[in-house]
Amino acid sequence: MTSVRDVREKAGTTPITMLTAYDATTAGVANEAGIDVLLVGDSMGNTDLGYDSTLPVTVDEVASRTAAVSRGADDALVVADMPFLSVGVDEATSIENCGRMVKEAGADAVKLESGSHTVELTERLVQLGIPVMAHLGLTPQRVKETGYTQQGTTRDEGHEILDLARKHEEAGAFALVLEHIPANLAAQVTDALSIPTIGIGAGSDCDGQVLVVDDVLGLSSYSPPFSKQYGNVREQMLDAVSAYREDVESGGFPADEHSHVVDELDDLY
Ligand code: KIV
Fold first, then answer.
1. Mutate to test the pocket of ligand 1, among 26, 81, 142 (most ligand atoms within 8 A of CB)
2. Ranges under pLDDT 50 in the chain
3. I need a labelling partner for 25 at 20 to 30 A (CA). Which of 68, 76, 175, 183 fits?
4. Which residues line ligand 1 (CB under 6 A)?
5. What is the pTM (predicted TM-score) of this model?
6. Cis omega (within 30 of 0) on the bond before 182?
7. Distance between CA 197 and CA 11 in Å, rounded?
8. Considering the domain boundaries, does residue 213 fall inside one?
9. Residue 248 within any structural domain of the chain
10. Is 111 part of a structural domain of the chain?
11. Is 112 helix (H, G, I), strand (E, B) or coil?
C-alpha cells in the first residue's frame, strides 16, 4: 500500500504518478497500471455528474465516489478532493467534512483547494491525523473570480504562490498540486520546497504529474491543451453502443448462444 510517507519521500527522486478516478472499475485499472495516487477529484462534476463546473459537487457525492475508489484500489494512495464550501466556512464543519472522507469513505488523505484561508486549517487537520494535499495556482472552485486562465503570470502573483506554498509546507501538507501556472514558476516552487509538487499544466520540473482520467482515456468531449490523450475510448464506446443498437434493431442480438431454453416449458400456451 502506498502511504503518504512514500509519496513524500519521492520528492526529488522518482516521479510521482497521480490520476483522477471516480469509480471502482477505473480505480482498479489505474491501480493495476501502478499509478501511485488516485485523486477522487471534484472534476467529477464536469466529467461524470454532468454539471458545467465543479461548484455544485457535494460532500456526499465525493464521499460516495471516494468509497468506491477505495474499494477498487488496493495499493494506490486515495485522496478525496474537498468540494466547494465544504471547507473554510467554519473550522468545526471543515474538520467534520474532511474527517468523513477518512472515517467513512476510506480516503488516505484529503486535498484542499488552497489559499490564505487554508493554512491554519491544514495545520489543524494534520494535528488531528488527516493528511493534507494542498493545491495552488488555478483552483477551479474560484472560477467565478479567475475563470480557467493560467495563474501566477506576474511577479506579484508568482511571489504569492511561492509564499503560500511555503506556508502550506510549514503547516504540514505532505504534497502540493500546482495547476496551470508557468513552468518556470512551478520549477522554482518545486526547488523551494521539500515536499513534492505534482503538476497539471505546470511543466516538467514538478516532482510528479496528475491528469484527469477522462482526458487520458480520450473520453472527454473537451480536454485542456496541457493534457495528453493516450486512448480514444469515447470513439470506441460510440462504436460499441452503435453496433449493439444496430444488432438489436436488425434481430442479430440475442442469437441462440445468448438464449436459454427449458424444454418442459414448451406448450404452455
Ligand atoms: O478535481 C481535480 O481533478 C483536480 C485535479 C485537476 C488536480 O483538482
1. 81
2. none
3. 175
4. 20, 39, 41-43, 81, 177, 179, 200, 210, 212
5. 0.96
6. no
7. 8
8. yes
9. no
10. yes
11. strand
